[in-house]
Amino acid sequence: MAAVDRSLAAGLPLFAGLSPTELDDILREAHAVHHAKNSVVFEEGAEAESFFVLLHGHVRATKTTSDGQQVVVRYVAPGEIFGVAMAIGLPRYPATATAVDDSVVLVWPASIWPRLVEKYPVLATNTLQTLGSRLQDSHTRVVEMSTEQAESRVAHALLRLIRQAGRKVESGVEVDFPISRQDIAEMTGTTLHTVSRILSGWEQRGLIDGGRQRIVVREPEKLQSLAEG
Amino acid sequence: MAAVDRSLAAGLPLFAGLSPTELDDILREAHAVHHAKNSVVFEEGAEAESFFVLLHGHVRATKTTSDGQQVVVRYVAPGEIFGVAMAIGLPRYPATATAVDDSVVLVWPASIWPRLVEKYPVLATNTLQTLGSRLQDSHTRVVEMSTEQAESRVAHALLRLIRQAGRKVESGVEVDFPISRQDIAEMTGTTLHTVSRILSGWEQRGLIDGGRQRIVVREPEKLQSLAEG
DNA sequence: ATTTGAGATTGATGCAGCGCAAAGAAGATC
DNA sequence: GATCTTCTTTGCGCTGCATCAATCTCAAAT
To answer: Three-state SS for B29?
Structure first.
């Protein structure tokens, strides 16, 4: 098992309130794993054998319906814990996690979670915060899908993407991992075609720059006003 | 402050793993409050001064958009913890909670949550489970709203309602609190009109019995097959 | 018993966005 | 550099559901 350096993990929200020694104790049980772009970290329905922290890269969580349609549940940003099925009492992963970029994750055996939490209860409270903000996000999405129409939903989704994973470039802010129109459709409950039309429109109006699996937002404020209808 | 009898709270998932003495210690800080039908327990955006456990009745959580549209986030069943803003790091309630029936809730000051969790870490892990299943529900809803059409979504919502709050009657299973077509519309992201048409159709086919703020499901299996498309 | 207001039904109309189709553009592979 | 694959664009017809509007019904209030 590869030893994991403390400096990689110090400062992550999950480990807030732990001393360096305690952190070392926790990291001793982990190992770092590299995932190539487009490789699957874990599959929906598989036994939840591990839980994870994303150190570098980006991971997409998706659910698939019985008739094969995919829905993007969320994107995991560096520093986040994910795959916590065990912590919430699920024996299996509820979604599929795919690296959308070359990524590095810390991996712990799920079986040690109860022991770890008993020893360091702050892990539970920190995870509670993470889960809480995910729940907020999910509810926000439900509200948006209930009340807004496609263009506003796509605008909101794009704004969220650049907030969580935006990289400054000369012309604006770019989503810093490869993302297709299909992905955005699966995030917003529309179709590839509708998203393509909407983004083309925005590009003509100079709000964004498009490209193959690339989006640069030039005018976040104008996008914001579109998002609000 | 009214003393709360241990027998009311023993056996609730939130308190799993606590001894009777520990439970008493926690209940000492709580008081029971009655809420009349249609009264508000807490309001979206208000300072999160308390957290709650529902002992009896039913509570609806809703969010309101800037333009005044309501969305039903979920219904709280007896035994559940709710209003846990503080535990997930929010200074304000993210939704409005309304008693849809005469209800009894236990109330704790939110300020004691950190101290309580420090003393009884199992509270955090139990809350983690609750939050996890809520997150699952919310994701399920996102998936349904992305991929299913109105009739399936209403069928799913109704099945969930009778599962979580169903009462056996001679002709089938009844949702055991008052629920309007408007409420169901707000749960499923459709309109009152669409829900009314759908339920009328089902009633003609003998799947359900309707009534003013009343729904009895006669044929859950047929509803299930509708839900699956 | 009457009133009143909230909830429910039902019809008519319009349109946002989906399904389908076909072609073009940009990387990936060899 | 040629081929292949994946992603994207764009046009068109169609339909599910929202929107608007009118009416009906029942339960609680007085």
So the answer is: coil
For residue B183, which nucleotide's C1' is closest to its Cα? C7
Query: B150 and B185 in contact (C-beta within 8 Å)?
Result: no
Residue at token pair 């917003």: A188
Strand D footprint nucleotides (protein C-beta < 7 Å): 7-12, 16-21, 26-27
Statement: residue A1 has pLDDT above 60:
no
What distances in angstroms separate CA B27 from CA A20, A226, B1, one per listed residue? 36, 49, 11
Q: Using a CB-CB distance cutoff of 8 angstroms, which residues of chain A are in contact with residue B69?
A: 146-147
For residues B218 and B12, what is the distance between their CA atoms, to the nearest angstrom? Answer: 31
Contact B71 A143 (CB under 8 A): yes
CA B214 – C1' C6 distance (Å)? 14
φ, ψ (nearest 5 deg) of residue A84 = -90, 30
B60 pLDDT higher than 80: yes
Which residues touch A193 (CB under 8 Å, ≥6 apart)?
A: none
pTM of the model: 0.95
Decide: A69 and B147 in contact? Cβ < 8 Å.
yes
Q: Where are the beta strands (DSSP E) in chain A?
A: 31-35, 40-42, 50-56, 59-64, 70-76, 81-82, 96-99, 103-109, 166-169, 172-175, 208-211, 214-217
Distance CA B174, CA B167 (A): 5
Q: Which of A157, A180, A156, A161 is nearest to A172 (CA)?
A: A161
CB A108 within 8 Å of CB A51: yes
CA distance B78 to B105: 9
The answer to whether the beta carbons of residues B85 and B110 sit under 8 Å apart is: yes
Per-residue pLDDT for B142 more than 80? yes
Measured distance CA(A183)–CA(A187) in Å, rounded: 6
Q: Which two tokens stand for residue A20?
A: 């360096």
Q: Give per-residue pLDDT as tens, B81-99.
A: 999 999 999 999 999 999 9
Which nucleotide lies nearest residue A178, CA to C1'? D7
Q: Give the helix/strand (H/E) hosting B60.
A: strand B59-64
**B132 contacts A87? CB cut-off 8 A:** yes
- Running DSSP on this structure, what letter comes out for residue A85? G
